[in-house]
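User:
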Amino acid sequence: MTNAVLRIGGALALAALVSTSPALAQDKAAPAAKPAAAKPAAKPAAKPATAAAKPAAKAGATVGGPEAAAAAQGNKSAWVKLCEKAPLVKKDKDGKEVKEEKNLCLTHHERLDGNTGMVLVSAAIREVEGQDKKSLMVMVPLGMAIPPGIRAAVYTKEQWGAVSKNEKVDDKLLKPVELKFSLCHPAGCTAETEATADIIEQMKTGGGMMVVAMNANAQPIGFPVPLDGFADAYAGPPIDNKAYADARSQLMKQIRDRQAQLADQYRKDQEEKAAAMRNLPGANTTGGDAPATTGSTAKPAAKK
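Assistant: Predicted structure:
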């Protein structure tokens, strides 16, 4: 089975993997500070979906095409639907490869680190024209253990509210699903599983989804994904790809400008510290050599 990399509008950090058989393989913001600090009830490491995972980094910026500014306020979601024609190669009854184009749609949500622009977590429902099977895809940063995969659990609005207050949620009430890693690239690693009708219905009515991966030290790391706005985006029309790409480019420019400002401020701080050190009492400000000794200046006793 051959795979190719597809990028929607040139703007997706979560790449789309296009495969030839029944399953076409492909590819924001954690709830503002509250769910990001949430720690669901602990479970053995073998079942990390509901483990007491450490939350991923909280600093982030949301991206949602034209809705980016509103989403950045924290409580609103930046779920968006993006669609594009994708090349698909399949075999006919005689075994010959036949190329055709299918409409591929992603209803996706992404969270970026506001300082570096790195994708902290991305989730998407992928649909392919003419195929009943849909996929749930999640991308997490590099450095996660591959064999355990990812576990994700959808919380109801009430459960998500409890999690945001660091209250315990009964694990027995959750329905965790396992996602197997399918691709790693410079932006992170993507895992996927079938998005059943039950999973999609949970996401439509849920408050949030906790994504848990294991790091290299076998510690569970939690990546909260809010679900407010998912139902509308999933049922609604796709947004304009160019508008989304322009909004994302603008955000990345803002991040680069911020990095440059931070670098300039760091240099100024270092220069000020160096100047302050030179003005300290006893500091060598002439540029000459330091005295050879700091001992007594008394003349030695005369020899008899």
